[in-house]
Every structure is written in structure tokens, then in C-alpha cells.
């Protein structure tokens, strides 16, 4: 099984887009990417916009030309692009249930997407709780898992791909996991490669200190007890330049247990590019440049 992380915070944008290829199936999970509209009170700069365009083109090309099945884990624009509805034609499309266990904002976006799907003749299926076989490749979907520490953000669906004795688990926006149900689902599946978002440490008290502690405790537990070959942490957690310091206890256990802990970029053998987290630093640099040029001669 080949797992390619196409876009994520460590690759410079908000996303958890992944392409999985097995001998039976080409699967695209969460085909979308976006930018943080305001970080440190600052909008994205040209570097971020250009990078977003580059990565979105790559994702869209895979959606159009390669993917046989597509999953949308929830209705946030860093996980899908409604403008691409036409490109889903002729594929198996698995969607987070658009009506149940969903908040109002996402339910509205889901209906807009379904309208577009209908106009292009795109068929879709509810993902939650499903188990599907494509040849010898098995895909399992979780039930609804809470989006982060609070129920008001609705829920997401996790995806498991099993092929040739390997198990890959993608769980978007579970913010940790903080929820016991999400943790238990991961345990049950025994993934060899586990890709989770990690909590939004950059939000600090807005995320909740207790929830942050719980997320770290759960990640330590997963490494200690489940021992996947590789734990990939990205998305919310990689909006924080100090993510490795926060994750220190996870790295310690991982070292003892022989578990690799990586960002998406590192998993893809690339240098992490935390463009959003570095936004303020880039703005400062630009301002300084302008200031120096104004100093008279
Ligand atoms: Fe997200």
C-alpha cells in the first residue's frame, strides 16, 4: 500500500489530503486545502497563496485522473472544494452523513455540495459505519467522531484502509484524539500507520487546557499500548511552531517503544514548511526591509 500525504500544515497549507493506492484501488481522502484566514491578526501573504494554488492543482489532478473512490470526512473547506463537484463524476463517493450528527453550518455546506453533485450526476453514499471491499482492499469507516473537544463543531468520520496485511488509518479533526470513542476506534483497527490531526495547541485556552492535556495523554497511550510503526501528527498541531516541545512526552514513549512520530512532511521525506505558523515572522521581515530602505543615505 502506498500512502501519500498531499497537503497538510507541515506542507504549508491547512489540509489532511491523502492519496492511498493499493493493488485494487486508488483512494483520495479529503480532496481540499485552505489557508488560515487570520493568524496573529494577519491575512495570508503571497507565498501562502501561491503554495496553496500549487498543492490544490496537484490534489485536483489526482481527483480527476487517478482516484476511483473519494472520501469527504466533514464539511470544512480545508477538506474539500465545492467548486470541484464535477470532478467526482464516475467515482465511488463516500460522504460524512450530511444530515445527522452535524452542526448547522456544516449541514448547510453539505446541502450546497449535494445540490452540485445532483446537477453533475454524481452519486454518493453515507460513509459512517460502512465497510466496503474493493477486490482484496477493505475500507472501514468509523461512526461519527466529535470534531474537537466540543460537540458544537459537529462530527467527522475516520477512514481505515486495509490491504496486503497493512493498515492505514486517517482521522481528521478529532483534535487529539480527545474523545474516548475516537480513541477506541483507533485501538480496534490496530493501524500500522496512523495519521491524526493532533490538538490545536496554538489556540491555547480557547482550545481548553484540560482538553490539551487529555489529547496528549491519549496520544501517549496510543504510542505506548498500540505501538503503530508510524504516528503522523499534523493539521491543527502543526499550526504551532513549538509542536515538538508540546509533544515531548509522546516522543519519549515513542523512542522507547520503537514508534516513529513524524509530521506529514517528514513522512513524505520533505522538510516541514510551517507557512501559517511562520506568517508573523515573514510579515516582520518585510516590514523591516521597508523600514531600512527609508533610512536616508
Ligand atoms: Fe480541518
Structure in words:
- The chain is an alpha/beta fold and 297 residues long.
- 33% of the residues lie in helices and 21% in strands.
- The strands form three sheets. It has a seven-stranded mixed β-sheet with strand order 7-8-11-12-13-14-15.
- The chain is globular.
- The relative contact order is 0.15.
- The model has no long low-confidence stretch (mean pLDDT 95).
- Bound molecules: fe (ii) ion (FE2).
- Fe (ii) ion is lined by residues 76, 78-79, 172-173, 235.
Question: N-to-C SSE series?
Answer: EEEHEEHEEEEEEEHEHEHHEHH
| Cofactors and ligands | fe (ii) ion
Rounded average pLDDT: 95
CATH architecture: 4-Layer Sandwich
CATH topology: Metallo-beta-lactamase, Chain A
CATH domain class name: Alpha Beta
Q: Poorly predicted ranges (pLDDT <50, ≥5 residues)?
A: none
Number of helices: 8
Q: Which structural category fits the helices and strands?
A: alpha/beta
How are the secondary structure elements laid out?
Blueprint: E1 2-8, E2 16-21, E3 26-29, H1 46-65, E4 69-72, E5 92-95, H2 104-120, E6 125-126, E7 131-134, E8 137-141, E9 145-146, E10 155-156, E11 159-163, E12 166-171, H3 180-189, E13 193-196, H4 209-226, E14 230-233, H5 243-246, H6 248-257, E15 260-262, H7 264-267, H8 279-294
Parallel strand pairs: 3-4, 4-5, 5-6, 12-13, 13-14, 14-15
Antiparallel strand pairs: 1-2, 2-3, 7-8, 8-11, 9-10, 11-12
This protein binds fe (ii) ion.
Amino acid at each position: 500500500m502506498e500512502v501519500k500525504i498531499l497537503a497538510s500544515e507541515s506542507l504549508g497549507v491547512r489540509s489532511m489530503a491523502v492519496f492511498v493506492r493499493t493493488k485494487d484501488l486508488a483512494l483520495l481522502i479529503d480532496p481540499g486545502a485552505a489557508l488560515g484566514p487570520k493568524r496573529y491578526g494577519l491575512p495570508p501573504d503571497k507565498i501562502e497563496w501561491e503554495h496553496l494554488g500549487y498543492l490544490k492543482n496537484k490534489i485536483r489532478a489526482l481527483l480527476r485522473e487517478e482516484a476511483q473512490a473519494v472520501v469527504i470526512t466533514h464539511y470544512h473547506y480545508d477538506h474539500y472544494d465545492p467548486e470541484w463537484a464535477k470532478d467526482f463524476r464516475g467515482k465511488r463517493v463516500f460522504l460524512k452523513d450530511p444530515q445527522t450528527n452535524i452542526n448547522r453550518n456544516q449541514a448547510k455546506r453539505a446541502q450546497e455540495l449535494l445540490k452540485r453533485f445532483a446537477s453533475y450526476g454524481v452519486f454518493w453514499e453515507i460513509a459512517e459505519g460502512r465497510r466496503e471491499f474493493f477486490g482484496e482492499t477493505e475500507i472501514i469507516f468509523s461512526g461519527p467522531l466529535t470534531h474537537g473537544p466540543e460537540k458544537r463543531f459537529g462530527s467527522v468520520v475516520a477512514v481505515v484502509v486495509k490491504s496486503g496485511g497493512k493498515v492505514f488509518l486517517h482521522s481528521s479533526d478529532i483534535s487529539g484524539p480527545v474523545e474516548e470513542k475516537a480513541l477506541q476506534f483507533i485501538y480496534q483497527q490496530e493501524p500500522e500507520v496512523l495519521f491524526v490531526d493532533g490538538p490545536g495547541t496554538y489556540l491555547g485556552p480557547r482550545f481548553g487546557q484540560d482538553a490539551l492535556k487529555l489529547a496528549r495523554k491519549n496520544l501517549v497511550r496510543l504510542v505506548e499500548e498500540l505501538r503503530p510503526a508510524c504516528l503522523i501528527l499534523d493539521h491543527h498541531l502543526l499550526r504551532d511552531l513549538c509542536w515538538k516541545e508540546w509533544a515531548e512526552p509522546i516522543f519519549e514513549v515513542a523512542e522507547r517503544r520503537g514508534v516513529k512520530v513524524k509530521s506529514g512532511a517528514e513522512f513524505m521525506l520533505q522538510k516541514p514548511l510551517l507557512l501559517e505558523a511562520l506568517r508573523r515572522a515573514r510579515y516582520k521581515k518585510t516590514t523591516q526591509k521597508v523600514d531600512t530602505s527609508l533610512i536616508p543615505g
